[in-house]
Specification:
Radius of gyration: 19 Å
CATH topology: TIM Barrel
CATH architecture: Alpha-Beta Barrel
Low-confidence stretches: none
Number of helices: 12
Order of helices and strands: EHEHEHEHHEHEHEEEEEEHHHHH
Number of domains: 1
Mean pLDDT: 94
Number of strands: 12
Bound molecules: iron/sulfur cluster
Largest sheet: 12 strands, mixed
Helix content: 25-40%
Structural class: alpha/beta
Length: 355
């Protein structure tokens, strides 16, 4: 472990007394899928202006920023994208982050969200580089339905083989592998029960995500949302469930266990049951802009501080100012019909800041 000075700049609280605990870092704005709820093909086509490589934060810059965030209490880093496994040599970044420890001296909790397309090839090298766990997005088991969700010709079997490779590489040892399924009414909601049956008893935790109005390009409509309550009811009717307590403060998923003891599932209900009250997440875009909410309209540029003459203490001061001023709670505002006009119009794209 290299010598890293501990500044312990102290926990940060925002306007709603929410601490900064969880940092999501987008390492690329590119993806090899075109999920309709995130990167609709009509918008993210060959003419779309993706970020030039020199705009991306380098691994050294990401690690330096991560250290500053850790000195303010961050305990978990999630690598996202676009598709993070498309970022060349991502294992090198994971190795650099894995050398960092949290303020209480524990290893940093490093995880990653992937569409699983490259997992079969990369699972072992990711595990060797220090990745502790992984979340895989999978929106169905039926190839035709899967294609309707991700708009590319990619077989479900390859993603399932990637998940098996992740299990074989030990990425489910310290914490269960998680599967995220976005549910869109009339497209893949008939896959809810088959997916539950498929992963029941495997030790893998399947989470159902309510379709969200992320970004400004996915044409979101409320009538295409399947409320989590309905998801639970559909599964419970065939495989009885019991509610579980949250496993961590600020957890996004509500947990349910199969009554027969064969595992658990989760639901993430940003639309019908907002969880902004204890949202402790910040998101760093691929080019170093800090976003304080998944539905934000703008972010604060930290790259200029990294590439300028500022010290870590200067970056810490900037971060303190940004987080202290944070009052984001879009899902609550959406729920009570008070979402500010600006947010209704121009939200940042999820593929740019990660989920
Ligand atoms: S809407 Fe924003 S503030 Fe609320 S939980 Fe999501 S990211 Fe956090």
């Amino acid at each position: 472990m290299w010598f890293t000075p501990r500044y312990d700049w102290g926990m940060l609280l925002d306007q709603r007394q929410r601490p900064l605990r969880d940092l999501r870092i987008s390492v690329t704005d590119r993806c090899n899928f075109r999920c309709s709820y995130c990167m609709p093909k009509e918008v993210f086509n060959k003419d779309y202006a993706y970020l030039p490589h020199d705009h991306l934060l380098s691994f050294e810059e990401i690690t330096r920023l991560a250290r500053v965030f850790i000195e303010h209490g961050v305990q978990k880093i999630r690598l996202t994208g676009g598709e993070p496994l498309l970022r060349k040599n991502i294992e090198v970044l994971i190795e650099m982050l894995a050398k960092l420890s949290t303020l209480d001296g524990k290893p940093l909790d490093i995880t990653l969200t992937t569409n699983g397309s490259l997992l079969k090839k990369k699972a072992q090298s990711l595990a060797n580089s220090g990745l502790r766990r992984v979340t895989v997005s999978l929106d169905g088991l039926d190839d035709a339905i899967f294609k309707r969700m991700n708009d590319v010709d990619f077989p479900v079997s390859d993603v399932l083989e990637g998940i098996a490779a992740a299990q074989a590489a030990g990425l489910g040892q310290q914490a269960p592998i998680k599967i995220n399924m976005v549910v869109k009414r009339g497209v893949n909601d008939d896959q809810i029960v088959p997916m539950a049956q498929h992963f029941k008893g495997t030790g893998i935790v399947l989470r159902f995500i309510e379709y969200m109005d992320v970004g400004s390009t996915n044409g979101w409509r409320m009538d295409e949302v399947v409320p989590s309550q309905d998801v639970i009811a559909r599964i419970h009717a065939q495989m009885p469930l019991v509610a579980l307590a949250p496993s961590a403060h600020g957890e996004t998923a509500q947990r349910w266990a199969y009554a027969d003891g064969s595992g658990e599932i989760g639901v993430i209900s940003s639309v019908t049951q907002a969880f902004c009250a204890d949202c402790n997440r910040a998101r760093l875009s691929t080019e170093g802009r800090l976003f304080l909410c998944l539905f934000a309209t703008q972010g604060q540029d930290l790259r200029a501080l990294l590439r300028g003459t500022q010290s870590d203490a200067d970056i810490s001061a900037a971060l303190q100012k940004i987080w202290h001023a944070r009052d984001d709670h879009y899902s609550e505002q959406r729920a009570n019909g008070q979402a500010p006009k600006i947010i209704q119009l121009k939200r940042v794209e999820m593929s740019y800041i990660g989920g």
